[in-house]
Amino acid sequence: HERLAGEGRQWAYTTVLTFLTRLEAKGYVASEKSGVAHVFRPLVSRDNLLRQKLVNLATELCDGTASPLVRALVEGQRFSADEINQFRRLLDELESPAAADQKRRKRRNNEDRR
Length: 114
What we know:
- By secondary structure, the protein is mainly α.
- The chain has helices spanning 2-6, 13-25, 46-62, 67-74, 81-94, 97-113, and strands at residues 29-34, 37-42.
- Strand 1 (29-34) and strand 2 form a beta hairpin.
- The radius of gyration is 21 Å and the shape is elongated.
- The chain starts with a helix and ends with a helix.
């Protein structure tokens, strides 16, 4: 409740408690009662939750194929050079190890020439 208030959200304590109780019922958080306060802790990381939701979305909208969803997410977005390099490394890792190694060596050679 305090964290939400610090972010400028004006939710009543009972609203926050209801929201967290629903998340607990879905298995996303766990709680302990500490005195008069409820203490909640996450059971699922943000990355795992995002991954799970995107898989569900791809299943629902794209017949289980992620590529149209990924394209829709990145088209028209502006990414920093660092983010683009991270994407390239991830794509390299997803390719066969030999092809990924070859591309990495080629990219390093090109970067060294600059």
